[in-house]
Design a protein that fits this description.
Blueprint lengths: L2 E6 L7 H16 L3 E6 L5 H12 L5 H8 L1 H16 L4 E4 L6 E3 L8 E4 L2 H8 L3 E5 L2 E4 L4 E3 L4 H12 L4 E6 L4 E2 L11 E2 L1 E3 H9 L7 H10 L3 E5 L6 E5 L8 E19 H13 L5 E6 L7 E9 L6 H12 L3 E15 L6 H12 L6 E4 L3 E7 L3 H12 L2
Parallel strand pairs: 1-2, 1-9, 2-6, 3-6, 4-7, 9-13, 12-14
Antiparallel strand pairs: 4-5, 7-8, 10-11, 13-14, 15-17, 15-18, 16-17, 18-20, 19-20
């Protein structure tokens, strides 16, 4: 009997009525002859509400205690869903991330899954039960509860699918797959029926909210296909899987991210190590890091990197700390956003970049920085220019 892993996001489980409907969806899959393991997020905006409660008490709450607090949201959902399943005659059992065998490192608030030991899940499946697992959480090798960061329930689902050798992993949310841009900005954004692991990973890293980047990496390594679907509006879907190189050539999506800051520094090697260790302690991820040194630098490292402040528990506190430590050696640029073009082969030559820069210049949009990878061109622009930049780039390359 094949196994399907399903994941339902916060909007899908926001109310008791929705939870009851999800129980019916799961029941249909179970009745078709499949074993089913389900990963759930916290209900609606519960995680945000828990964060706000903590911030009312402290602007710098201990990260271990934040993990203990935030992990409760998924426990509520999984218990309610199991009650709903049992109510319609489907045997179900709920498990926390630790009970499901999700082992992580000891980095709080942004832990990485290092191993999955799904023995308890396998035992319950063998007994004919639907197993409902709280997403977004695991347990460190030190036996502390950890959380996986924003979008971590996706990672929980794909990691479990890989460990359980599932047929596929279905990710359900309030949208029916992946689009060429955020439909809230681009009304005629194109639905993408399929996309490669690499392109999806670049989109997630650049700010797309459909799937978590670490989850896509797990799927890629384990060759698990991800089906991104709408919970209550079935029909279209996006399949994320391995595709032949060049099969989806050219710009396929325009992704944006707000609330970006760029930090430039001139520091010694010991200070660089201090910076890296402090950001690691705070679970803050550096992106687009550039580091150089030369004889002219007189022993200093010239650093430049960006941070996404939406993923930082208390950006104001961190900014104050960095300025106090590095004084006049640090320069912080706020009020920025990033717009990224995603696609296979877009950097085979400089044509896409060159024409995009010309387009933005002709529309008086100042580009503050450029970064490229094999599948991505990212442009740093003023935050108030992000929407216009997305509209122009989408019209130029996709519409």
């Amino acid at each position: 009997m094949s196994l399907i892993v399903q994941k339902f996001g916060g909007s899908s489980v926001a109310t008791l009525d929705k939870i009851k409907k999800i129980a019916e969806i799961i029941g249909t899959v179970k009745a078709s002859g499949h074993d089913v393991a389900v990963v759930v997020s916290a209900m609606g905006k519960t995680t945000n509400q828990l964060i706000e409660m903590a911030q009312e008490i402290s602007a710098d709450a201990p990260k271990r205690e934040m993990d203990m607090l935030l992990s409760t949201g998924e426990r509520v959902t999984m218990s309610l869903l199991c009650i709903a399943l049992n109510e319609i005659g489907i045997a179900a059992v709920s498990l926390t991330g630790s009970q499901a065998g999700i082992i992580t490192n000891d980095r709080h608030n942004d832990a990485k899954v290092i191993e999955v030991r799904p023995f308890r899940v396998q035992d319950e499946l063998a007994a004919g039960k639907v197993v409902v697992i709280g997403g977004f959480q695991g347990v460190s090798y030190r036996r502390d509860v950890t959380t996986l960061g924003r979008g971590g329930s996706d990672t929980s689902a794909v990691a479990l699918a890989a460990a359980l050798d599932a047929e596929r992993c279905e990710i359900y949310s309030d949208i029916d797959g992946v689009y060429s841009a955020d439909p809230a900005i681009i009304k005629d954004a194109r639905h993408l029926p399929e996309i490669s692991y690499q392109q999806m990973q670049e989109m997630s890293t650049a700010g797309a909210k459909v799937l978590n980047a670490q989850a896509v990496q797990f799927a890629k390594e384990s060759k698990i296909a991800i089906y991104a679907r709408s919970t209550f509006a079935p029909g279209k879907e996006t399949v994320v899987r391995k595709l032949a190189p060049g099969q989806l050539k050219g710009v396929k999506a325009v992704v944006h991210e707000n609330d970006i800051v760029r930090i430039k520094m001139q520091i010694e090697q010991e200070q660089f190590s201090l910076l890296l260790n402090r950001l690691k302690e705070l679970s803050v991820q550096m992106k687009e890091l550039s580091c150089s040194s030369s004889d002219e630098c007189k022993g200093y490292n010239q650093l430049s990197f960006i941070l996404s402040t939406k993923n930082i528990f208390s950006w104001d506190s961190l900014k104050t700390e960095l300025v106090s430590i590095f004084s006049d050696k640090i320069r912080i640029e706020e009020g920025l956003g990033a717009v990224s073009l995603i696609g296979d082969g877009i950097n085979d030559d400089n044509m896409v970049l060159h024409e995009t820069l010309q387009l933005l210049e002709s529309n008086s949009i100042v580009v503050r920085g450029i970064t490229t990878t094999s599948f991505r061109i990212s442009l740093l622009v003023p935050k108030d220019s992000v929407v216009q930049c997305v509209e122009l780039c989408h019209k130029q390359w996709i519409a």
